[in-house]
Amino acid sequence: MNDLLAVPQATLGSHTLHLLLLRLLVTGGLALLLLAILACGQQPRVHRFASLPSVVAQAEAAEASTLSVTDGHFLWNGQPAFLLTGEFPYYRIAASDWPARLDQVRAAGVRIVTFYIPWNWHMPTPNAADFDGHTHPSRNLIRLLQLIQERHMYAIAKPGPFICAEVQHGGIPDWFTAAHPEALTRNAQGKLVGFRQDGKPLPAYLAPAYISAVRDWYERVSRVLRDWQAPAGPLVAVQVENEIPYSTSELADPFSWGYSAAEIDLYRGWLQDQYPGPDGLVAYNRAHQTTYAAWDEVYPPGMRPLPLADTPVQLDEPGASASAPAAGNASAAPAPAADSARLRRWLPYRDWVRFRAYYGAQVLRVYSEMLRRAGITVPFYHNALMLEDEAPASYGPMSQTMWLGVNYWLPKDPRTDEDAFVQGIYRVMLLQALAPASPRYAPELNWGWGNEGSFDFLSRYLLPFLNGFNVYTLVNGDLNPTVAGRPYSNNPVPYPGSAPIGADGQTGAAYRALQELAGFLNATGSDLVRTSAPATVAIGYYGPYNEERLYYRWAGLPVSAVADLVGRDADALPEQQPLTADAWQSTQTLMAALLHAGVEFRLVDLNASSPTALADELAAYKAVVFWSWDYLSHTAQLALAQYVQNGGQLVLAGQVPMLDENFRPDSILAQALSGISPHGNPATPVLHGHPATLAVVTPRQATDPRFWSELAAANGWHSPIRIVLNTDHGPEPEQGQDKSGAGHDLGPDPAKGEPATLAEVFAFRRIGTGGCFLILVNRNPRPANVTVTFSDERANTWKLSTTVGGGRVQLVHLKDGRLVAASPALDPNGAELTRGQ
Question: Residue 599 and residue 22: Cα distance in Å, rounded?
C-alpha cells in the first residue's frame, strides 16, 4: 500500500489516479474477504484447480506490478514466478467483443496478454497513425489497454516493426517499400526477397531509410505505450522485432538475403572491425590470400569470384594473422602456421556466416535503442525463429542485448515423432546453455493449430525445462478488413482456428485443458521456477560446427562441396562420421540416446571465452559427452583437457580434433586422449600425474541407447528414477490430428502385437528450493500403468503408482516431504504415493 502512495504525482495521468483508487478499494475488500474465509476454517483443496485464479491471485493482480529476470527465471514484484501469458490478436477481433474475450482469458487463469501492434494496420497511409479508433474501432489501442487495466490484467506489447502474424506484408506498410526500393534486401543474384506468405518485398533491417521509418513508427506507438507502463500501468514488457530473419527458416541460407548496398557496406565495416588499424586490409589479404586494394572491393561470397594471389602467402610470417578469431577463442601462445589452402577456401564463407550472426544481434541493439529513446522503460525481449542457433538467429549474440525466448512450432507431433520430441527439449536446453541469463520462455507455444491433446502434451512435456510460455493464440479472430485493396489476413479466418476461445466466444476441450494447466501453474509456479532439471552428464555443444550446416542444409550446396571448402578428407573419417560438421544434428543424436538410456543431462557451451571458466563449469558433471570433427577451438580443447586432468570422464564420439578453428595444428586434447582405445573400451591413462577415465567411441556406438545405458550403469551416471511399466492397458487410445486434420495413430498398438515399451514413457525431475516436480510423459496411444521410484530435493525416496493417459503428461509437486499438488489430480482409488525410508 505504501509503495502505491509513494508514486510521484508528476508521473500520474488521470487513468493512473483512477487505477490507484480502484486498487485501494479492491485490495481492502479482498483482504476482508480473505479474513472471513480464514475465520470459517476453510482449507484449500490440493488437487482441484478449476476454480483458479483464486481470491489470492486476484488480490495480487490488484497491486502495482513489475516484471524482471534473474538467474534464468522471472520475478513478479521481486518474487519468483512462472510467466504464463496468452496471445490476444485484437486486430482480428471486433472491438465490441474485446471485453467479453478478455473476461474469458482471465477466467482461463491467464493474467497477462501479449499482442502484436501491426504497423500497417495502424498506419495504412504515411504520416498518420490511428491508436484511438477514429478510422476503425479495432485500431483503438488505448481502449484495449484500458480494458486490460480495468480487469487487473497485464500486457506485453509487440510493435514489430515486422510481426509476421499471418497478416499482409508481415505488418510492414506497402507505402514504405514502394517509396524506398533502395532499402530492400536482395539475394546473391541481386533479386528482391519477398515475404514468404505474399511475396511482398522485404526491407534490409538496417538500411538507413528503413531505420528512419522504424524510428518514426516507434516514436508514434511509444507515445501511447509509455503512459501505460508498469508499475503504474499494465504494460510489463515489450518484444523487439519478431523472428529474425522475417519468420522464414529458409532465410538461414547464407545466399538468400543481405546483398543490398547498405548491407554490403555494413559487412565491410564489420570486416574492418575484425582487421583493425591502418594495415587491416593487408592483414585481411594475407589471411584470405587475396589482392584487394581497397575495402570497397570486398564483396560477400556468392557475388563475385575472389581475386586470389598468384603465389600463396605463408601465414607464419611476422605479424600475419590466420583470421580474427571468435571473441575469447584466441590462444595466448604463438600459433603455428595454418593450412593456407584450406583456410583460403573456407574463410570468406565463415566470415559471411559470422557477420550474419552479428547482424541479427545488431538489429536488436539498434531497435532497442530507438525504443528506449522513445521512452519505453520496461524489459525487452526477442522471440527467436525456429532455427537452432543458426545465424542470423544465434542465441548467444542476440541475448547479449535482451533476454531471448524460443518458439515452439515443431515440424511434427512430438507424441508420434522421435526427432520432434527430442528437438523440443533440445531447443530450450540450447537456450539455457547459450543464454543462461534468459528466463527460458516460449513466446509462441502452439495452441492455435491442431487439437486439445497435442496442445496439452506440448505444453506439459516441456515443463521440465521452461519457466514460462505464451499460449499462441488464446483467442480465434474472424475480423478481416480490406487493407491496401485486399484482405488483411494471409490465412483463412477464423485465425488460427483451434484456439481455446472461439471467434464467437465458444469454449471446449482446449479451454478446459488450459484452465487445468493454468490452475496448476498459478498454484505452483513460484516453486517450479525455483527448481531445475538435475544433470549428471554434460553434452558438449560447439556452435561453429553449424557454420558448415548452413551451407549444405539451407544453401543447398552438395555435402562434398562443403567438405571441400573446409578441406576435409572423406577417406580419413571414421566409419559413419558425417562428412560435414553439424552441431545441430550431432547434439540431438546424443540427446536422443541418453534420453532413452535414462541419463539426466544438460548441454554445455564449449565455445566459451575462458578455458578455466569452462573447465570449472564442466567440473560439476560426472561425465562429458561430445561429438567432434577434425577442428575445435584451443579454448575448448584446453578446457576438456583440464577436465580429464582433474579426473573427469570424457566420452568423445567422431574424430579427435587435431586443429584449432583457424586450422592451425592443435593437439592438446589429442595428447590427453593418447592411448585411448578407438572402440569404446575405457582406458585409464595418466595426464600430468592425474588419473582420468576416458573413452573414444564410434559414431555407431554414439547413437545406441543400450551402449549408453551400460556405460551409465558402470559409471554411476543413471538418474535416481526407475520406471516399471505394468502390462495391463486401459481403453482405446485417443486419435490425434495433424495440421491438415487427417487422423493418425499415436503409437504402437498392443492389440496388434505392438506392446508399449519403456522407451515411450519418460520421467523427468526438477528439484531445488521449490521442492521436487515429477513429470511423467506417456507417448503411447494408450494409458500407461506405471510405478515410478524417484528421489526428491532432500534425497528422500518416493514410489508412485499411477496411470498416465494415452499421449498425456502427469505433473506431481512434492515439497518438504509432502504432496503439494498434481495435475491431473491423482486418483484416490487408483494411485498410490508412498515415501521410502
Answer: 53
